[in-house]
């Protein structure tokens, strides 16, 4: 049989490609999945995730600890795929830790970040004997020490430093500048190190720096490490016992403007400096591993020319994919089975009652009729994980494809499920 697969323009991975003009995921036609499971529908390629994880592991070497950022896509089948590829996990809540445990996965290579950890979360993570807590604020230290004393053993911590490095990304996904809420400023970090070292219930094992998301160049990572090295050089106590350097994640992929990050170049720039100090690298990719591995399928409902704009109405909305409204993110959108004819410029909008409910603006698409399918590309990260039930809409089902096999990994919600936790407020009766 002739293999007629062709690249799909805008897709960041070859697992999404065209055959006979139609869009496929690995060996499954996307139109078949939409017909079987309805739309909106998230579809993921397991092979794309595996290939990206293997690339990160190859770049940073066998000694590196790769911790998948659970917030990017937290469905258990994705976590199991990451574990099978040798990854640990970066969690930012007790709920994400529970997801890792519910998937039956080990917690020995879990790191726990987050600027406002609650005691129950710390107790749960300490009981799971995670690799380390990322200390984001000095106020955490007494709480962490108290839990360590409660368990009778010191907790391993990495101090998250805020190096005030501008990563050149969107303001809402920048995390390493002095006006961001994340990490401890270098001016305050010396006192934090002293407090950790003074506590018998805390053990400083490393430093953590995360600069934001969608980074596209090596320079911010190198600049951050230089600032950490200068900080450590300021006091011998700051280097004592340090075994890990967590450079964070934020590896950019190719949607919007700009090229994907050259992850191998980041590794080449940092690894010699880390090895010279005996620091084991930890990386926390999320979007880079799963973003290009997913698409959101949506069906055209109709069109509406108005006020000089052609609105293309679809059944997916901002509650299904929040990124365009929240970050002005630009996802490529393609027809699953395009018709011939000249392209027209449209705004792709959904049914939610908000002007901000759009998937794309001023986008050139081929002619579309009611019932046609569109695929929003690079939707595997921060799509389903940020979805909501706004307007009492059910969140999409999610399907994972492996070769010619496609399985539902999260069912579409029912309206009964949306209402099951609600209780009526009965009018009080007069006594």
* pLDDT averaged residue by residue: 94
| General shape | globular
- What profile does the largest beta sheet have? 9 strands, mixed
The SS-based structural class is alpha/beta
C-alpha termini separation: 81 Å
Q: Give the DSSP E fraction (strand runs of 2 or more residues).
A: 25-35%
> What is the CA-atom radius of gyration, in angstroms?
23 Å
| Record field, number of beta strands | 22
Low-confidence stretches: 170-177
- Percent range of helical residues: 25-40%
Number of helices: 12
Task: Give the helices and strands, then pairings.
Elements: E1 6-7, E2 16-19, E3 22-25, E4 28-29, H1 30-37, E5 41-45, H2 46-60, E6 65-69, H3 76-84, E7 88-91, H4 94-102, E8 110-112, H5 119-127, E9 132-135, H6 140-151, E10 155-162, E11 184-185, H7 186-198, E12 202-208, H8 219-233, E13 244-246, H9 263-277, E14 280-283, H10 287-290, E15 294-306, E16 309-314, H11 323-327, E17 333-335, E18 344-349, E19 358-365, E20 373-376, E21 397-402, E22 405-410, H12 415-419
Parallel strand pairs: 5-21, 6-7, 6-14, 7-8, 8-9, 9-10, 10-11, 10-12, 12-13, 13-14, 16-18
Antiparallel strand pairs: 1-2, 2-3, 3-4, 5-15, 15-16, 15-20, 17-20, 18-19, 21-22
Helix pairs in contact: 2-9, 5-6
